């Protein structure tokens, strides 16, 4: 495979990602831990209250479950990270395409690009395909 053919294949993959980013499905889960203690400056995180004449701890539902706002903040942070990763992936793929088109790609650069892609959320099957395309360039 020559450099132009490899660049075309990777450009086609990048185009598909840009035109249909929803093809990558993500589920964001917010899990809770038993009791959540949030203390203000100098305040206590969790307060134990004896119910009636017995000894025990009372925890209201609001103390053990995240609020809607906390869930929205978590989802927003997850979306920000996904967008940042998608921008990084696009940049790496554009760099690969440029190197191929300029015939300046080397095996070392190829391995560096693949290593960078592995640090993203890009599915392994896509990374393996890109690695195989680049390997074909080197024969």
Could you outline the blueprint of secondary structure elements for this entry?
Blueprint: H1 3-19, H2 61-64, H3 68-101, H4 107-118, H5 124-138
Helix pairs in contact: 1-3, 1-5, 3-4, 4-5
Features:
mainly alpha; elongated; 5 helices; 139 residues; 0% strand
Written account of the structure:
The protein is an all-alpha fold and 139 residues long. It has one domain (3-138). 59% of the residues lie in helices and 0% in strands. The protein is built from five helices and no strands. The protein is elongated, with a radius of gyration of 24 Å. The termini are close together.
Fraction of residues in helices? 55-70%
Taken as a percent bin, the fraction of beta residues is under 5%
Poorly predicted ranges: 57-64
User: Given the helix and strand composition, which structural class is it?
Assistant: mainly alpha
Structural Rg = 24 Å
Query: How many domains is the backbone divided into?
Result: 1
What gap, in angstroms, lies between the N and C termini? 8 Å
Count of beta strands: 0
Large-scale geometry: elongated
* Average pLDDT: 79
Please report the number of helical segments. 5
Question: From N to C, what is the helix and strand string?
Answer: HHHHH
**Major β-sheet, in short?**
none
């Amino acid at each position: 495979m020559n450099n132009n053919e490899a660049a075309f294949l990777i450009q086609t993959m990048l185009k598909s990602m840009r035109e249909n980013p929803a093809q990558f499905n993500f589920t964001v889960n917010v899990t809770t831990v038993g009791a959540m203690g949030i203390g203000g400056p100098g305040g206590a995180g969790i307060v134990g209250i004896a119910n009636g004449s017995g000894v025990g701890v009372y925890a209201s539902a609001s103390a053990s479950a995240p609020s809607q706002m906390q869930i929205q903040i978590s989802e927003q942070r997850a979306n920000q990270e996904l967008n940042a990763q998608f921008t990084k992936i696009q940049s790496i793929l554009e760099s690969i395409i440029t190197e191929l088109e300029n015939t300046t790609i080397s095996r070392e650069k190829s391995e560096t690009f693949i290593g960078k892609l592995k640090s993203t959320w890009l599915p392994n099957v896509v990374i393996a395909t890109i690695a195989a395309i680049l390997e074909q360039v080197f024969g």
